[in-house]
Queue: 2 jobs
Job 1
Amino acid sequence: MRVPRALLLALLLDACLGEPPPRLHPVVWMGGALSWLEARAPRRPMARLVYGGLAAVALPACWGLLGACADRVAPWPVQALLLKPTFAGRSLLLAGRRVEDALVDGDVDRARTSLRWLVSRPTANLGAGLVAAAAIESLAENLVDSWLAPLLAYACFGLAGCYVYRAANTADAMWGYRTPAYVHLGKAAARLDDALNLLPARIGALLLIGLGRRRRESIAVWRRDAARTPSPNAGQSMAAIAGQLGVRLEKPDTYVLNAVRCEPTAADLQRARKLVMSAMLVSAALSLVLRGVQARA
């Protein structure tokens, strides 16, 4: 099997250096393009629906085309530099660690502040248990969105695939809300992201189930609660990790996973972080194997 040098170097860059500066980060550029498009969106609901649909398709298509060109003409070290920003393992784990450290110190205010790096929900009124729960949920969900899905997209389809995925996921992150401002504009982006994450979300859940010790409870909670979240995919890994840790995960007024259990603590957040890190290592190895097979074919 041929060693996928670009992927291996990108993984090493993430482990050692983390994210590139914002001015050099393609995901930041994607966000800037979406903000530019949003500022020019029409106001009428049906026009916003059509406009958002066109944008949701055009933006990933353009980035995918750029990725395909880089796959053909760029040397492998440059490909590694282009690949690295499409996934973010080190930064995710460090963000979880900051929340964990604050909770261990008993500083809930600092934990709430650190949590803002992981979630978009309001954090000001969350108690320690809900802060830990939100951090665990984000670690589980972003195992898929920020790691597994882009790596699998690259392993199967090269830079074109991972850039299509990252652009679609960024559009959903910015527009995929059921609020008056985005219910029409972001509908297509949300549906496209749901489709792209359908398989990776379930692979992520299976990894969390298989790599922990409480497999029976994890499977039971996954089967019972995975569909309780508004997203058809986010609940997959979150329910699996709730069962694996034996904790209750709750977003107030939205969902409760594994409701019979107690709220998590800082120790549970530490266990979640270590479990997610194990799943990252396994999925990275899987991606290396898949990419090596693709290169040989």
Job 2
Amino acid sequence: MTSPALANTPTPLAPERLPQHVPLAVQTRDGLVESVHYGSVIATAADGQILLTAGEPLAPFYPRSALKPLQAVAMVRAGLDLTDELLALAAASHSGAASHREGARRILDLHGLTPADLENSTDLPYGAREREDWLGGGGQATQLTQNCSGKHAAMAATCVINGWPVQGYLDPGHPLQQLVARTVADLTGEDPQRTTTDGCGTPLFALTLRGMARAFGHLAASAEGGSGEAEAAVGRAMRRHPEMVAGEDRDVTALMRLVPGLLAKDGFEGVQLVGLPDGRALAVKVSDGGDRARMPVTVRVLAALGVDTSPLARLAATPVLGGGRPVGLLQATDFLAAPKISPAPEDL
């Protein structure tokens, strides 16, 4: 008879089923490599042509919160009409500052809704400073402080606008989620390889880095005056209000402020998407989910694409301290120099 403990033991994945990631970032301490972050990367042109790759960019992955701008496009297509500030919040993984909480509440108020209509999970503010302030004031985990509350308020509002039931708006069969699924397929050019549930309760699709890069390149180009009314609205809102997309002291906010025209969104488990105003885009997935490797890798790819990354020095590398003084560095590897990372077009 199998014991309960053995019965619950997961079956290890066979090596051939694991994505073939490559080393993207390393942390050194006094010249010795202390940690290595593996992952995959792709950069695409406005026409979808592949400009560079590393690892296995066609391995399916979950974009997590990097999917939010695409979800926001679906809602705008369905009639959601918000100010730029609030639309940026609808595409946000916000830090939980007062402006974020009040913004989500404003979206609800505008459509005759209350926080009781939200169906996302509860959580404390995501930002460290915002969490300390909230807890210092006696705050607890709520749906409004959870980092996806802007998106959920917008989803509930979109249901009101269209006469759809608000209750159950996260169900994959709900008209809202059906529209989101069609919009994601349209923007990425891919049919999801798998569907699951994100941490906040929203349906989540397995896509490729190439598909997500395609979508972000289109969003960024649309924000510059290209085609796609809903895409342009979301892209412009995010670029105009990066502090609503993330928050103060967040690297995504800094990235959009320091590089004019750049559109960026991160996601849990080491995901970063960037769109450039000329339609080029890049997508990064750090295989171990490590957040600290995400930005050094992104800056390395931006430099390879010819973007002036001199303002991004503090995002490109992080000092490693010993006794309060620098003794090492967290930085991207020279992964673009490895010959095996440039597959022939027929392999992609």
